[in-house]
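User: Just a sanity check before I run the rest of the batch. Below are the structure tokens for the first item. I only need the designed sequence back.
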């Protein structure tokens, strides 16, 4: 039984932290590549839009994690 981490902190400090870090980096690089995300320097007084990271596993990834544990 694979359980999802409750938040990014838990994901990046859990047993599969390397896999979660790689997945998050891959997702950010895809967003940067398609022009939907850009890193900028936050200046004093600048308003920012809050974001939330959603952690999920695809069906194939769940099977892969289960297979690795055996």
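Assistant: Here's the designed sequence for the first item:
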């Amino acid at each position: 039984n694979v359980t999802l981490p409750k938040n990014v902190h838990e994901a990046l400090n859990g047993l599969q932290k390397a896999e979660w870090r790689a997945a998050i980096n891959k997702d950010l690089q895809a967003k940067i590549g398609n022009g939907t995300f850009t890193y900028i320097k936050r200046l004093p007084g600048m308003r920012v839009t809050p974001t939330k990271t959603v952690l999920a596993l695809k069906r194939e990834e769940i099977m892969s994690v289960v297979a690795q544990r055996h």
